[in-house]
Write a structure and sequence with these properties.
Helix content: 40-55%
Mean pLDDT: 88
Number of strands: 5
Order of helices and strands: HEEEEE
Strand content: 25-35%
Shape: rod-shaped
CATH topology of the largest domain: SH3 type barrels
CATH class of the largest domain: Mainly Beta
Number of domains: 2
Protein backbone atom coordinates (compact mmCIF):
# COMPACT_ATOMS: atom_id res chain seq x y z
CA UNK A 1 0.00 0.00 0.00
CA UNK A 2 2.86 2.39 0.79
CA UNK A 3 4.54 1.84 -2.60
CA UNK A 4 1.27 2.82 -4.35
CA UNK A 5 1.14 6.09 -2.37
CA UNK A 6 4.79 6.82 -3.11
CA UNK A 7 4.22 6.26 -6.83
CA UNK A 8 1.33 8.75 -6.81
CA UNK A 9 3.39 11.24 -4.84
CA UNK A 10 6.30 11.00 -7.28
CA UNK A 11 4.08 11.45 -10.33
CA UNK A 12 2.41 14.46 -8.70
CA UNK A 13 5.82 16.02 -7.94
CA UNK A 14 7.01 15.37 -11.50
CA UNK A 15 3.87 17.03 -12.90
CA UNK A 16 4.34 20.02 -10.59
CA UNK A 17 7.99 20.46 -11.62
CA UNK A 18 7.02 20.12 -15.30
CA UNK A 19 4.33 22.81 -14.93
CA UNK A 20 6.78 25.20 -13.25
CA UNK A 21 9.34 24.58 -16.02
CA UNK A 22 6.74 25.21 -18.73
CA UNK A 23 5.62 28.42 -16.99
CA UNK A 24 9.23 29.59 -16.78
CA UNK A 25 10.09 28.92 -20.43
CA UNK A 26 6.82 30.24 -21.86
CA UNK A 27 6.32 33.32 -19.68
CA UNK A 28 9.12 34.38 -17.35
CA UNK A 29 12.14 33.88 -19.62
CA UNK A 30 10.74 35.87 -22.59
CA UNK A 31 9.58 38.61 -20.20
CA UNK A 32 13.08 38.96 -18.70
CA UNK A 33 14.63 39.05 -22.18
CA UNK A 34 12.21 41.80 -23.24
CA UNK A 35 12.99 43.77 -20.08
CA UNK A 36 16.74 43.55 -20.77
CA UNK A 37 16.14 44.88 -24.31
CA UNK A 38 14.16 47.85 -22.89
CA UNK A 39 16.94 48.63 -20.42
CA UNK A 40 19.56 48.45 -23.18
CA UNK A 41 17.45 50.75 -25.40
CA UNK A 42 16.95 53.29 -22.60
CA UNK A 43 20.66 53.27 -21.76
CA UNK A 44 21.52 54.00 -25.41
CA UNK A 45 19.40 57.17 -25.63
CA UNK A 46 21.24 60.24 -26.89
CA UNK A 47 20.49 63.86 -27.67
CA UNK A 48 18.71 64.21 -31.00
CA UNK A 49 16.88 60.86 -30.85
CA UNK A 50 13.17 60.97 -31.68
CA UNK A 51 11.35 58.95 -29.02
CA UNK A 52 7.83 57.89 -28.13
CA UNK A 53 6.80 57.79 -24.48
CA UNK A 54 4.48 55.23 -22.89
CA UNK A 55 1.87 58.01 -22.87
CA UNK A 56 2.15 58.51 -26.63
CA UNK A 57 4.13 61.77 -26.63
CA UNK A 58 6.53 62.05 -29.55
CA UNK A 59 9.52 64.31 -29.14
CA UNK A 60 13.20 64.95 -29.73
CA UNK A 61 15.61 64.55 -26.82
CA UNK A 62 17.31 67.89 -26.13
CA UNK A 63 18.88 67.13 -22.74
CA UNK A 64 19.77 64.09 -20.64
CA UNK A 65 20.56 64.38 -16.94
CA UNK A 66 20.86 61.08 -15.04
CA UNK A 67 17.36 59.58 -15.32
CA UNK A 68 15.53 62.72 -16.53
CA UNK A 69 15.12 63.68 -20.19
CA UNK A 70 13.89 66.91 -21.73
CA UNK A 71 11.85 66.39 -24.88
CA UNK A 72 11.03 69.03 -27.45
CA UNK A 73 7.58 68.43 -28.90
CA UNK A 74 5.49 70.03 -31.63
CA UNK A 75 6.16 72.87 -34.02
CA UNK A 76 6.20 75.49 -31.26
CA UNK A 77 8.99 73.53 -29.53
CA UNK A 78 7.34 72.90 -26.17
CA UNK A 79 9.66 71.28 -23.66
CA UNK A 80 8.60 68.36 -21.46
CA UNK A 81 10.58 66.75 -18.62
CA UNK A 82 10.14 62.99 -18.31
CA UNK A 83 11.85 60.06 -16.63
CA UNK A 84 13.91 57.63 -18.73
CA UNK A 85 11.69 54.71 -17.72
CA UNK A 86 8.78 56.43 -19.52
CA UNK A 87 10.38 55.95 -22.95
CA UNK A 88 8.63 53.22 -24.93
CA UNK A 89 10.68 53.24 -28.13
CA UNK A 90 13.06 55.17 -30.34
CA UNK A 91 11.35 56.18 -33.56
CA UNK A 92 13.16 55.26 -36.75
CA UNK A 93 13.08 58.24 -39.14
CA UNK A 94 14.92 56.57 -42.03
CA UNK A 95 13.02 56.67 -45.31
CA UNK A 96 13.04 53.53 -47.45
Amino acid sequence: MDSANNGGLYSTMIMLVAMVAIFYFLYLRPQKKKEKEYIKMRDSLKIGDVVITIGGIVGIITSIKEDVLILETGNDKNKVRIKKWAIKEIENLEKN
